[in-house]
Automatic annotation (TrEMBL):
It is found in: Cell membrane. It comes from Undibacterium jejuense. This is Cytochrome b. GO terms for biological process: respiratory electron transport chain. It is a multi-pass membrane protein. The lineage of its organism: Bacteria, Pseudomonadati, Pseudomonadota, Betaproteobacteria, Burkholderiales. The chain crosses the membrane at residues 12-31, 51-72, 93-113, 155-172. InterPro entries: Cyt_b561_bac/Ni-Hgenase (IPR011577), Cytochrome_b561_oxidase (IPR052168), Di-haem_cyt_TM (IPR016174). GO terms for cellular component: plasma membrane. GO terms for molecular function: electron transfer activity; heme binding; metal ion binding. The keyword Manganese does not apply.
Length: 184
């Protein structure tokens, strides 16, 4: 029988958390702020390694998030450190918004690519030149999905930073084991 530490997340949850966090940060850094302008000026995204990596990481993040969601439904019990009701509420709210953003960012990226007629370019030379199922979808005309994607990318980075600062606060000030529960 395997011993489960109720003060620690299981190893797979930790792996999902940290790989996702690192992938999001790298994708954010590599996300070309001038993406739309580049493509409108005829630049092939397949020639820009930053775009290829950004889009590949986006697909990876979406896949990891799906797997992580499945794992969260069957994994061992997650730690529930003692905290005040308002802290628990904020913690749950931040986690929920982060989950939503982890799904929304890749979806808005695909909406942006599909509605603007740009290809999806991934590592290994994989490329989908057209996404007609997106271009013809009802959602396609509801927003400038490139702007939405960029805004949500900023939001996830700010929220992840606040999430990290809260973990450090719990570690340094409250000494309640919240940060340690997710460390390797």
């Amino acid at each position: 029988m395997q011993h489960t530490n109720l003060n620690q997340y299981d190893k797979l949850s930790k792996v999902f958390h940290w790989i996702t966090a690192i992938a999001v940060a790298i994708a954010f850094v590599l996300g070309p702020g001038d993406f739309g302008r580049l493509l409108h000026n005829g630049i092939d995204p397949g020639t820009r390694i930053d775009i290829v990596w950004h889009e590949s990481l986006g697909v990876t993040i979406f896949t990891l998030t799906l797997l992580r969601l499945v794992w969260a439904t069957v994994r061992p019990v997650a730690p529930r450190p003692q905290m005040t009701a308002w802290m628990r509420f904020l913690s749950q709210l931040v986690h929920l918004v982060l989950w939503v953003l982890l799904f929304a960012l890749p979806i808005t990226a695909l909406l942006a690519l599909g509605t603007e007629g740009h290809p999806l370019t991934l590592l290994g030379g994989f490329r989908i030149n057209e996404l007609p199922f997106i271009a013809n979808a009802h959602l396609s005309g509801l927003a400038d999905w490139g702007d939405v994607h960029k805004f949500l990318g900023d939001v996830i980075m700010w929220l992840a930073g606040i999430h990290a600062l809260a973990a450090v606060y719990h570690h340094v000030k409250l000494k309640d084991g919240v940060l340690k529960s997710m460390l390797p």
